[in-house]
TrEMBL record:
Pfam families: Acetyltransf_10. This is GNAT family N-acetyltransferase. CDD domains: NAT_SF. InterPro entries: Acyl_CoA_acyltransferase, GNAT_dom.
Length: 139
């Protein structure tokens, strides 16, 4: 059988689904259903406009925090901790046993350590001398 490999600097939703769909089907057949469920917490200003928050999901008994953003002018008030606590509490309700997150930001790394996360891996350096850290926390 002959295959062509085509490199491109962008991908379409159809291209992504051509990889994602069969991969999810394979993983579900091999490991069981993931029971993936999205989780979002919006940080809103007085007018109700979303200015930041937390985006993630729960699956296979774990919470994954994909994105967490606090606007610079609102940092230092414990909002990251409140967002993490809310997400972790919801994850517990979903019968999760822990949470994981990654970051390249040294300030965020210190915050996650403060909130009970432990470093489970590190990679780099990337351009600019930064490293990515993977962290987890068991409940």
């Amino acid at each position: 059988m002959t295959f062509r490999l085509v490199l491109t600097d962008h991908y379409t939703p159809e291209m992504e689904e051509a990889v994602r769909g069969p991969l999810i089907a394979y993983n579900n057949a091999r490991f069981g259903e993931s029971e993936k469920k999205e989780l979002a917490i919006s940080l809103q200003d007085e007018e109700g406009k979303m200015t930041g928050g937390l985006i993630g999901w729960t699956a296979r008994g774990w919470l994954y925090v994909q994105l967490l953003f606090i606007p610079e002018e609102n940092r230092g008030h414990g909002l990251a901790g409140r967002l993490l606590t809310m997400a972790e509490n919801e994850a517990r309700k979903r019968h999760c046993i822990g949470a994981y997150i990654d970051t390249m930001n040294p300030d965020a790394l210190q915050a996650y350590l403060k909130y009970g996360y432990k470093i489970i891996g590190k990679h780099g350096p990337f351009t600019g001398g930064h490293h990515i850290h993977w962290l987890s926390k068991t409940f």
